[in-house]
Amino acid sequence: MKVGMIQIDSGGHAWRQASAALWKVGKSGTVAVLGVLGVCAAVVSIAEAGDETPLLLKENMEQLRCELPSLDCRVTDSGAPGNLFYRDEPVNLKLSLKKLPGEPAEGRMEIEIQEIGTRTPGRTIGGMEGFTDTAGHAPLIELIGKPVVHRLDVRFGDREDAAVDAANLPLPQRHGTYALILCRNGKRQFITTVCRVPRPREDATIESTPIFGEGQFIDEHADLRARQYQRMGIRGWRSELSWSERPDGQYEWERHDRLFSAAKSAGCRIMVTLGGHPWHFLPFNAPTPAARWTPQTGGYWGTADWLCHPDYYERYGKWVRAFCERYWENGKGALWGLENFNEPWEGGGISGWARDCVQYRALQKLIGEAARSVSPDIRLLAASSIMNTEDKFYSDGSR
What we know:
399 residues; five-stranded mixed β-sheet; 18% helix
């Protein structure tokens, strides 16, 4: 993406530049984030069984000498969105603890606070668990400094669970990521992570803050996740969205409304990557098989085409214009710009692109005319790289 900004891309190497890795989100609604603005910052929820993230792997738990998280101890509330605290803020969490067999009705437990990092290149976990196609193998965390201990007085009484205020946790002022481990009766269990992040400028905008976040994880719990980005000083992100028109011509805005409302409330703007088209506009009501197609490929990596028949291009252009009118809001909305497809490489893109440069130019022209009919200030982006821009627009020798 060539916008004079750094894009925080999903799975990006946390130790390179000021990038970040945004990983799978647990059902409780927090997300793992590594390497924000050069600060190692990770927020990981108490994931339910089956919620896999690169941090919550056996090898990383071995580094912390603790067990994987479970519902025996979970975070029910936090004093900051996503556990992202500024240096001068008190760190307050609310926990729900289940009474374990043989445990007394009341007693003392401890929370160990250990700074962790992923700053060492090549320090990774073998195998494919936690692997992403952009970052590769999951990082193996390293422990930074000595842990700090906070004591908790827990009273179950005659109940099987207890609500516990973990107030004023002695989290160091140092910017970074801290793993919290519950120590009870000789058992060590991972709870969550908490971060100290720099306080951003209150007047920051997408134009003054050269960082783009990855927005593919934001769709669910959009308000919370947009506030997490706002808290980190990120004022824009990329969301891959699709033409949302029913066969009867009705536009479906509900999902997009929720996303753009969350962004606007958080002071963020969205770079929209316009991707594959609805199946009911495809020539065979399904992706069109291309080279190397097999049922197992799912249409990725150039093995199928996810775009409509050219007869529908005019209809697509009308939807793009309606989309821009709805979310540009005379420059006061959350729309920032439009990108034509994600990595539409010549010879086969990664996400449903299997056409040639002639068709790409036609779609780029259509999107550009539709957007500029609403405002010349809507940014237009294309091709995902300088090399691919040359392939798409100058492969016939034109300038």
